[in-house]
Amino acid sequence: MKNQTALIIIDVQNDFCTGGALAVPDGEAVVPLINHMAGDFRHVVLTQDWHPAGHFSFASRHPGQQPFSAITADYGPQTLWPDHCVQQTRGAAFHPDLDIPQASLILRKGYDRELDSYSAFFENDHKTPTGLGGYLRDRGISNLAMTGLATDFCVAWSAIDACQQGFTVEVRLDACRAIDLDGSLAAALDNMKQAGVRLTGS
Ligand code: VGL
Ligand code: ZN
């Protein structure tokens, strides 16, 4: 049992799996791996992308914009997505086969209508903390293992922020899947390495 390491499971939700609104290719393949891996950890945290209808990151909110285009928000660049993970919908629910009863925290993110949050630690303005850093430190956790969806967005941003917060971070790539938009996966892998994230399981 790994006592000072927490497993952070990012956004394993229906909308990121086959048939979902923002399906990540082969996204559901991570589920059995994560279920198995979770047994090794005393501390497990789940994150849940959790947007109100009409969220700023939805292309439908911006007349004339298509999903997967990018705009400049007050807080920097923002990719626009299909409507996804709308609060209380089936798409926002965890994949039905995800089986992690021992998770101590479900951290929701992206609930501010005007601000997106890829990272589990800071919203996309890079300033507004979610509180996860304090939660983990308070529990004496210094090492993190991360898995989930999508490698090149929420996993990468969370892993990089975690390193910058002083955690030791391993991303288990075999239990992650990527969106890979215009080279975003290669860029995310580079950025993670540069930040000091240990990439394993590839
Ligand atoms: C995610 C795009 C939009 C993710 C969430 O979980 O990686 N990507 N919202
Ligand atoms: Zn989202």
Structure description:
With 202 residues, the chain is an alpha/beta fold. 21% of the residues lie in helices and 25% in strands. The strands form 2 sheets. A 6-stranded parallel β-sheet has the order 5-2-1-6-7-8. Strands 3-4 form a two-stranded antiparallel ribbon. The longest helix is centred in the C-terminal third of the chain and has 14 residues, at 151-164. The site of pyrazine-2-carboxylic acid has 8 residues, from helix 3.
Features:
binds zinc ion, binds pyrazine-2-carboxylic acid, 202 residues, 8 strands, six-stranded parallel sheet, alpha/beta, 4 helices
The ordered string of helix (H) and strand (E) elements is EHEEEEHEHEHE
Uncertain segments are: none
Strand order of the largest sheet: 5-2-1-6-7-8
Computed structural class:
alpha/beta
Small ligands present: pyrazine-2-carboxylic acid, zinc ion
- How many beta strands in the DSSP annotation? 8
Q: Overall mean pLDDT score?
A: 97
Give the DSSP E fraction (strand runs of 2 or more residues). 25-35%
Shape: globular
